[in-house]
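Key result, reporting period 2: structure in, sequence out.
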């Protein structure tokens, strides 16, 4: 589901509407590319660009959407500070620990004004001691954005503390 909403997999039938815009409708030959959907996504494996620094990874969505590099860097600095990774902001993503990578991925997903937020196991690499703080930041940022979010997690505490509605689906 997350990959369909993000545009990484297309629908075989039906339609997908995000923020009033049909982004996938195979019978009408409509498919909006992922980069044009303005979706903030945290992948389970973090999926940072290894050749960019932590700061550049956070700034990437803004630059891709046409913001100036200076504006993107300024906002990225605010986000890396809030997510507790300012001390590694200049390090290449491939040198970050799992927890640092995850914080950078979350910051990247929430920066700017995405139309929706998709989080796949967003706190799996965050240490137990830090989880309450990171949950609170995510909850605060999503509320401030006022956009729909979809969180997939095996951790019920994460779900209870970050979500306003919970659906439990099992196979």
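The corresponding designed sequence is given below.
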């Amino acid at each position: 589901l997350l990959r369909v909403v993000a545009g990484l997999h297309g629908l075989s039938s039906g339609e997908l509407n995000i923020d009033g815009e049909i982004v996938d409708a195979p019978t009408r030959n409509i498919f909006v590319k992922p980069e044009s959907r303005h979706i903030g996504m945290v992948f389970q494996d973090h999926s940072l660009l290894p050749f960019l620094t932590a700061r550049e990874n956070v700034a990437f969505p803004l630059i891709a959407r046409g913001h100036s590099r200076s504006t993107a860097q300024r906002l990225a600095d605010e986000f890396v500070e809030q997510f507790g990774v300012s001390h590694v902001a200049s390090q290449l993503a491939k040198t970050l620990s799992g927890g640092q990578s995850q914080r950078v991925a979350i910051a990247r997903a929430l920066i700017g004004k995405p139309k929706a937020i998709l989080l796949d196991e967003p706190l799996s690499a965050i240490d137990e001691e830090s989880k309450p703080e990171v949950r609170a930041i995510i909850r605060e940022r999503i509320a401030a954005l006022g956009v729909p979010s979809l969180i997939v997690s095996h951790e019920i505490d994460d779900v209870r503390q970050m979500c306003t509605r919970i659906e439990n689906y099992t196979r």
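The first strand starts at residue 16 and ends at 18. Helices lie at 2-6, 34-37, 54-64, 69-82, 98-110, 131-145, 156-162. This case is discussed further under Risks and Mitigation.
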